[in-house]
Amino acid sequence: MQYRLLIIILLLCASVSNSVAQSRSNLTELLNTFSKERNITISFSPTLTNGVYPKNSSLQGEIAVVLKRLLADSPLEYKQMNATTYYIFKSDKPVEKPAVAPKPKPQPQPQPVAEASKGPDLHWSVKTNALIDLTTTVNVGVELGLYEQWSVQLMAYVNPWKFGNNHFNLYMVQPEARYWFNNNLGGQFVGLHVNAGYFDLSRLSYTGNFLGKNFTPIKGGGIGVGVDYGYKWNLKQQWYIEAAVGLGYSAFFGAEQRVGHYVGVTKLACSISYTFK
Question: Which of 88-92, 96-100, 157-161, 242-246 has the lowest mean pLDDT?
């Protein structure tokens, strides 16, 4: 029953993420949203802003930084009128032609210096998988953003509880590497994850058929690998929700050296996260 409930919740998360993914805000919508969030006044003409779709639509950061980011690659500029009022207008500055400088005398060429490598754009998030929480399993994860469209994540799952004579215990870690299709670590992503842990199902009263295979409660260890696809969208400011599903292979090592093999769903997530930038 728990597995059916998890699948239903994931499908609901996926449907919401698809509807969010289909919408793309233009500059008019972004400026209206930003002015409400920051409690400021931004004056502009929709005729100028309706057709502008910023490449980077993030609203995080100082007001001046956000406005400069939204107006980048457009013929628009902003001017601060007072502490809480800003004005968006079309720039009419003429393009200045560079002055013709006298031809310099040949100079000895300096030796090339190796350019310092650009450091990673570090920011990180903490999260929990709400679907796993429903099984009374405590879980927490940390995700670290690296170079623009790459991030790494580590999830930990612990279920030490005992409920009478019918319970299960689980201790598992799940590292993952992700590639994001957008450069702000939001929207669609694909990932490669690894599962490793210890489980004790020996006190479960359930026996029979599970996912088309005979199921006998045992205890032991397991390890697996899989690929996943997901979508992440913003709820409000630095809060996010994320849905993901993964497929892969797992091997389980039980008592008496018994080994079980499983191919199917290796990840199911509907997570809530908070991002530190």
Answer: 96-100
**C-alpha distances in angstroms, 199 versus 57, 159, 170, 255, 273?**
44, 9, 4, 12, 26
Please determine, for residue 3, whether its predicted confidence score (pLDDT) is greater than 60.
no
Q: Which tens digits make up the pLDDT trace of 224-268? A: 999 999 999 888 888 999 999 999 999 888 755 567 788 999 999
Tens of pLDDT, residue by residue over 136-179, are 889 999 999 887 789 999 999 998 887 766 667 889 999 999 99
In the chain, the domains with their CATH numbers are 24-90 (3.55.50.30), 120-276 (2.40.160)
User: What are 236's strand-pairing partners?
Assistant: 239
Per-residue pLDDT for 211 more than 50? no
Look-up: residue for tokens 């996010």?
A: 240
3-state secondary structure the chain: CHHHHHHHHHHHHHHHHHHHHHCCCCHHHHHHHHHHHHCCEEECCHHHHCCCCCCCCCCCCCHHHHHHHHHCCCCEEEEEEECCEEEEEECCCCCCCCCCCCCCCCCCCCCCCCCCCCCCCCEEEEEEEHHHHCCCCEEEEEEEECCCCEEEEEEEEEECCCCCCCCCEEEEEEEEEEEECCCCCCEEEEEEEEEEEEEECCCCCCCEEECCEEECCCEEEEEEEEEEEEEEEEEECCEEEEEEEEEEEEEEECHHHCEEEEEEEEEEEEEEEEEEC
Helix 63-71 to helix 27-38 angle (10° resolution) is 180
Tell me the pTM. Answer: 0.52
